[in-house]
Amino acid sequence: MNRTAKAFSVLLGGLAGGAACAEPPAMPAAVPGAAPAAPALPNTAGPVRVRLADVVHADYRDAVMSVVNKPTVSTKATAPDLICTATMYEWLFDHPDRVALAWQRLKVPAVPITDAGNGLFSWTDEHGSEVVWRTVGTFRDGRVWYATGKVKPGPATPSVPVKAVAVLSHPQKAAKDGVASFSTSVQLFLVSDSRAANLALRLLGPAAPRVAEQGAEQFLEFFNGVANYVQKNPTKADALLAPPGKK
C-alpha cells in the first residue's frame, strides 16, 4: 500500500470490514480485477432506487441516515459481472469472517474477522484499530451494513473514530439451475470528525476521490474474488470455506 493509501486508511481502513486487507491483495490468477468506480448516487443501490429510511431497521435508522446524509467521504464502485451459485454468493456476504479466512488459505494477507454472534462481526489490528458492524437492513438483491469503531493507522498515530454505511446491491441478470450472473455494486459512506481524518483529506488533496474508489473496489473484490475462485474450483470450496481449524 503506498503512502497515500496509508494516509487515507484513517478514513477507509475499517470500512465495514470487507476491505480489511492489510495490503491491497495480490489476487490469485483465477480472480479478475475490479472495474472502475462509478459516480456516487445518494440513497441508491445498483440500478434500483432504494429509500434507505424504508429498509433500515428502526433501531439503526437515525444513525445510518446521519452518516449517509452528511458523510466525510462517500464513493461507489461497480464490479465486473460475476457468475456464481446464488446460495453461495449470499452465504459469503453472511459470513465475512470465513471470506477473510479463505483469503488467508489462498496465501493472501487479510486481517482476521471475528464472528461475535447475533449478526455482529468485528476486526482488530496490531495498532489498536477496532471496528464492529452488522446488517441493519435488507432489500431485494441487497443489504445495508452499519459499522462503528476506531482506526489507528500506525503505532505513533492517534485513533480516529469512524462510523460507516455500506449499501450493497447484487441484482441477478440471469439465472439457471441455481447459478446466476450478478452485477454487484457498493456505495460507501464514512463519517469522522477527528482532526487526523481532516488532515488526511488535506494531505491527499485531488487524490482523495480515487483513493476512496480504490477502497470501494477492494471491498467488492474481497467477496467477489472468493466467489469467483469457488465457482471455478468447486471441489476446493469446502476446505477453503471451512471454519477455523478445519480443512
From TrEMBL:
This is Uncharacterized protein. Keywords: Signal. Residues 1-22 form the signal peptide. It comes from the Bacteria. The keyword Signal applies.
